[in-house]
Specification:
This protein has about 350 residues and is mainly beta. The protein is built from no helices and 28 strands. The strands form 7 sheets. The protein has a 5-stranded mixed sheet, with no helix packed on it. Strands 11-12-13-14-17 form a 5-stranded antiparallel sheet, with no helix packed on it.
């Protein structure tokens, strides 16, 4: 068995990393602003790319644009009835069959890309679905479930495989984490199930809310490769003292991590100073970068640093957005979407 790769994170470093150092090219798509296509950048949860469409998912709407940025249609709507969602926790696309899967608060819906609802299925009310992806003709759903046994209250992290009829075909329990007090909520970083390098990668963090806390102090610092029902450790991040301070408290919260063929990426928070950091490690040069405010876009000369996100079906591609305001703008335009390809 080969030794697990470790990548050091210098949490005391706060540097900048220019996109020109990691990207081959970046394409800008100006998203059309209409009465029906108004985007709130703070509510964008995922961007999906098809051959002829760009799909923008917010918390309460799904908008479809063509690759030139022209608005095409919205898909679904907020509501309690058939074909409606109460909120959007995640979306995934089957490009070959031109279907869109939506993970809502209480059900999963399947739409044709023309906007028609094909099918929907209620989910277990004990679930809190963290992420959804469509890979290798399978719908994968990462979930968190609350439970209680003789050891106490626990959160069970699991991955379910669903068929196109939205029926559960298989499942894989990732782990059970026991808590003194526990509640679940929406996670702000949702890139947990990703496809790249012909593999499916999975990361599941331990996030707890409302003063709840785990009975064990463990930093979940390992990225896994998911092969059917087996989790195979792929790499881990090495934090100072494993993210534990001198009093035995965890001061690092690792929110997500993923890799491309060349780079390892992560987002984490330092609870001692209440800040978020972006981390990038270049396996070709052996250099790591720790950034508090994101990446520097020296290609498009954006003054504000940007936060990049992986394309969930291809981790060699990333995206970010930025709203450009002109002095004569009477209203705020839609953000410009930037699509980048990573160096190999």
């Amino acid at each position: 068995m080969s030794e697990l790769m470790e990548f050091p994170v210098d949490i005391d470093q706060n540097t900048s990393l220019s996109l020109s150092e990691i990207a081959e090219e970046i394409t800008a798509i100006e998203l059309e602003l209409t009465d029906e296509s108004l985007i709130n950048p703070d509510r964008i949860s995922r961007v999906l790319l098809c051959e002829d469409y760009v799909i923008i998912a917010e918390q309460r709407q799904i908008l479809v644009f063509n690759t030139d940025g022209k608005f095409v249609r919205s898909i679904g709507s907020i509501g309690q009835g058939p074909g409606e969602y109460t909120g959007i926790r995640g979306v995934a696309v089957d490009e070959r069959c031109r279907r869109l899967f939506v993970n809502s608060s209480s059900k999963i819906l399947c739409y044709a890309l023309d906007g028609n609802c094909i099918k929907e299925s209620r989910t277990d009310p004990a679930w809190s679905a963290a992420d959804i992806n469509y890979i290798n003709d399978e719908l994968l759903l990462s979930t968190e479930q609350l439970g209680k046994d003789e050891k106490g209250r626990f959160k069970r992290s699991a991955v379910y495989r669903l068929n196109v009829q939205l029926q559960i075909m298989d499942s894989c329990t990732v782990r059970d984490t026991y808590f003194e007090r526990i509640s679940l909520g929406i996670h702000r970083f949702e890139d947990f199930i990703l496809s790249g390098n012909s593999t499916v990668s999975l990361y599941v963090s331990d996030i707890y809310l409302n003063g709840s806390g785990p009975t064990e102090t463990v930093l979940r610092d390992t990225l896994y490769r998911l092969e059917k029902n087996h989790l195979i450790p792929e790499l881990k991040l090495k934090f100072k003292n494993n993210g534990i301070d001198g009093s035995g408290n965890k001061f690092i919260e690792l929110f997500n991590m993923y890799r491309s063929s060349r780079f390892v990426f992560a987002v984490y928070g330092n609870t001692l100073n209440n800040t978020y950091y972006r981390f990038c490690y270049d396996t070709k040069t052996g250099k790591g970068y720790n950034m508090q405010d994101g990446y520097t876009d020296d290609i498009n000369n954006i003054e504000k640093r940007v936060s990049i996100h992986p394309l969930n079906t291809d981790t060699e591609i990333f995206y970010y957005w930025h709203t450009h305001m002109n002095p004569d703008d009477l209203e705020e335009p839609n953000p410009t979407l930037y699509i980048g390809t990573l160096k190999k």
